Structure formats: C-alpha cells, structure tokens
Amino acid sequence: MDRKQIDEFLQATLVDLRLSRAERQALHTLIEELAQGPHDLNQLRNRAFALAGERASSAPDRLLIDWLRELVRVVDAQRGALPEARHSEALFSPGRACLDRLVGLISAARMTIDACVYTITDDRLSGPLIAAHRRGVKVRIITEDSKVWDLGSDIERLDSTGMSVEDDNAPGLMHHKFAIFDDRTLATGSYNWTRSAASANQENLIVTSHAPLVADFAREFARLWKAWGQP
Length: 231
Known about the structure:
single chain, alpha/beta
C-alpha cells in the first residue's frame, strides 16, 4: 500500500480522535483501491497502532482507544473481500473432480461463458454448455482449428445451436484451456475438455475469483476473439 497516502488518511482521522461514518466509508474505499492482500492490511493495522502509540502521551486514553477500535474493525471486515482471500482451489485428475467442477461452473453461469479450449470432446461438458446457451447465457468458444474435425469433437454440435464458436485459423496451436464465467470466476490449467482427461490423464485445474487474474485472462480472450472471432 502507499505508505504516504495511508499516513495522511490516518493523521486526518486522528485530529478529533474519532472515526466518523464518512471516514469509515472512506477507509473502506481506500482499502479496496490499494490493498493487494492480507499483508497490506497488517501493515495498515500496525501503522495505526504506531500512530496511536505516538499520541498516547497527550491524547485522552478513552478517545484514542475508541478511534483505534473502530479503525481495526473496518480493516478486519475487509479481509474477506480481498482477492487473495477469495476462494481459490486446485483440482486434479484422473477422476471426476475437474469435470464436476467445470460442470458446476457452467451450470451456475447466469450471464456469460468465455471458453478458450484446445479441444472439446466430452459431451458431459458440451451438454451443459448447450443448456447454458438455451437459458440465455452468452457463450463464446475459441478452439484449435486442427481439432475441429477430430473423431468425437463436439465443436460442430455446439456451433449448430447458434452459440458463438470460432477456431484460431493460425499456423501455431491454440493450446489454451481456460474459461471465464460471469466475468468473475476463472478456470484454467492443463485439463483438456475430453473424456481421457478425466479418466486417464494426469491433469490439473485451478479455479479462482482473484480479480486481477480473471481480468488478465479476460483481456487475452478479448484479444483472441478480436483476431479470430465475430464482431
């Protein structure tokens, strides 16, 4: 966090030794803008205690403790809202863990699904994608052009439903395996959307709602879609 900006804020609130409602809201906003993880919150908390210690010799003890209590309460309330504190998980195959998690994400999507996947041959994933499209979710799929006509490929089936499906049309492989759900949850890893990935392969899948990471992948999807996809 920006030490100077935090100090300026804390010093301003210490003038009257109280954290007003407006100041609590301002602190809430400041943490959302500047804090990158629990370490930043710990630094903020430690700085508040340091400033309180500097003032302790001259300020009325009760007012100083009340100020500190209110500030720490706001800081602690923000811990669960930080990207690093949000739910992230790693899943592995063989087994159904990765498959079931992807099916759950697809089924839970309400607005958008952007999938950039090397190949799709597992109808246990294609079926939920079609169901999502039919319930009004905007589904966009980018896939590797050389895999479209593979035996068992579901790409033509998905395209026939009217959802937006594009292949890479490029000399190198489009080897990504990631999907973004409702612009807030990312699934990525080595896991191919195939039956062998679940039944035989050693694969991994990371699912996270870490906002900066989701945004990075969303930008990459947008870049690829602009290059190969529909307007």
